[in-house]
Amino acid sequence: MRRRMRARLGRDFGRLWAAYAVSTYGTWIAFGAFPLIAVRVLHASAFAVSLLEAAGLAVASVAAFSLGPWVERRAKRPVMIAMDLVRFAVLASVPVAYVLGVLTYGQLLVVSVVSGTAGIAFGAASGAYLKHLVRGEHLLVANGRFEGTSWAATAAGPPLGGALIGLVGPVVTVLADAVSHLLSALGVLRIRGSDVAAPRPDPTDRTDRTDRTDRAQWMRRAGLLGGLRIILRDRVLRRLFLNSILVGGLIMATTPLLAVLLLGHYRFTAWQYGLAFGVPALGGFVGARLSARLVARHGRYRVMTVSGRLRSFFPLGLAFVGPGVPGLLTVIVVEGLLITCMGVFNPVHATERLRRTPVEHTARVLSTWSALSRLLHAVLMVVWGLLATLTGPLAAITVSGVLLLATPLLLPRRADWSADAAAFVTAAAPAGAAVTPLVAPSAAAGSRSGFRRRPRRARPPGPG
């Protein structure tokens, strides 16, 4: 069974998956390294730690607004390789500066910004390439494998990173993360299949402006506004977008506060901190492996809504975290239940997003989605950092848990779920638009044949 599944997904998918796995494991081995460096090496405050996370997200998001069209019109593998090399270079600068005795809080901010921007471009390129590489009916399986790998790395990485930090310090874990991106670039380089890029605008088209002012305006529309317009025109995409960025933002807002609470106030050791977030990730791995089976049995809508509601309920349990072994067990149980639900939800969410996105605009939509998500996460991190300064980390974490209880109201409704996506795809795509395969056109066309359109409903066509 496993061999047949691998045969359907193909060797190139295996290489892409392996590249993703090695960089993800490196990232999770370095989990908490920046907060640890900020708290233990640079003696930063709770607000400074929140600002470190928020500034990287915010500036990277603003820089990423124009990345969608840029990625869209380029071959995806070179973009992924370049972004991996950029992340390798900036992350490797941290241990170098530490050894030379010149590491500063400002450098950590710059590294966070550059690596975050490169991460957005890499995510947009890899998502578009995955849709090109894997047939539509296998997207859920492919996304499930990526999600399972992510949670397996989350389970193994933090405990390993905690042990590594205890032996040689947090800076070495940043070096491990840097090397993982270099290995990821080498893995993507091994892919031998076709590539994909959207065609550039026709210079004879009257809508293609020639002067710089109009061209800049077109880029802004094509980037942030173009991607956002595609998201908002589909009712399911719109509600998924609003739900995902708000849930993610409220959860991410508490991440630096948990680091301050556990490492600073409760004096957890590095290995305990890693254990608190590593063990629960096993639930995410199990959830990701079960996601496709649950969908086959209960349907996408039911699985997404049930898991989406449950993931908004469990974070409130962090309000009861205390010091010592009981506090450690509370974090493990609460995070385990939360992450299991996320492991089920995320592959269905990612697959539905790809299915409902026009194939030639996938990179644009993914970059807009990622940029706006990170921007909101940054804003909420700053707000929660200020709230924690006024009320304490535990009180701010509790407020986040209470607000999360209302987020299931933004999940797609059954009436929205049954809405026709094919009419949206036709309306959103410009006339004559097509994705241009760069190598092996027949293979590329076969990869896209899995994106099946549903029968069009009887309603007037949209503009365009």
Explain the overall architecture.
The protein has 464 residues and is mainly alpha-helical. It is built from 21 helices and 2 strands. It has a two-stranded antiparallel ribbon with strand order 1-2. The longest helix is centred in the last third of the chain and has 32 residues. The termini are far apart. 53% of the residues are buried. The N terminus and C terminus are likely disordered.
Short description:
Helix content is 75%, strand content 1%. It has helices spanning 2-9, 11-29, 33-41, 46-64, 67-72, 76-100, 105-133, 139-168, 170-189, 212-233, 235-253, 255-265, 270-278, 281-298, 300-311, 324-355, 362-391, 393-404, 414-417, 422-428, 441-448, and strands spanning 196-197, 436-437. α8 (139-168) packs antiparallel against α16 and α12 (255-265) runs antiparallel to α18 (393-404).
Note the topology:
Blueprint: H1 2-9, H2 11-29, H3 33-41, H4 46-64, H5 67-72, H6 76-100, H7 105-133, H8 139-168, H9 170-189, E1 196-197, H10 212-233, H11 235-253, H12 255-265, H13 270-278, H14 281-298, H15 300-311, H16 324-355, H17 362-391, H18 393-404, H19 414-417, H20 422-428, E2 436-437, H21 441-448
Antiparallel strand pairs: 1-2
